[in-house]
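Reopening this ticket.

The earlier resolution said the output was attached, but the attachment link was broken on my side. Pasting everything inline this time so it's all in one place.
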Amino acid sequence: MKLSEVPKDDANVLEGKTSFIQYAVDSDGKYVQEKSPGFQPQNIALEQAWEEANERIAEALQEVIENKKSPIYYFMHRELMDEKILSEYVGIAKWRVKRHLKPSVFKKLKPNRIQKYIEIFKLDNEDDLINFKAEKWT
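Inline output:
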């Protein structure tokens, strides 16, 4: 593709935080990197992916509010993780992370395990996790 043909369909999907590199041929016939905010099909796919992720986060929040899941479940989804990824960050087996998602098990977690989750989720303090307040995160 020529430099003038690099897509510039800016739907502001990434809110100006990043752009994509496209390779194009300049007037001298050399390949150059050109920043592009994306093109329509790519922007539509990204919008759909973010809508789905936000729906999952909202559903996770609701499950925590209803006391079906522990606050770890919400923060895991907010960070776009699943049990396997979170278990690798925490350094424990996936089945143990799944147990920590149960409110009854979560309440019995030791301070060092709580601290590990706080660090992983980049929370300001343990109160954000232990005394979860849904209104703070909506």
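Reporter confirms the inline version is readable. The two ends are 44 Å apart (CA to CA). The longest strand covers residues 20-25.
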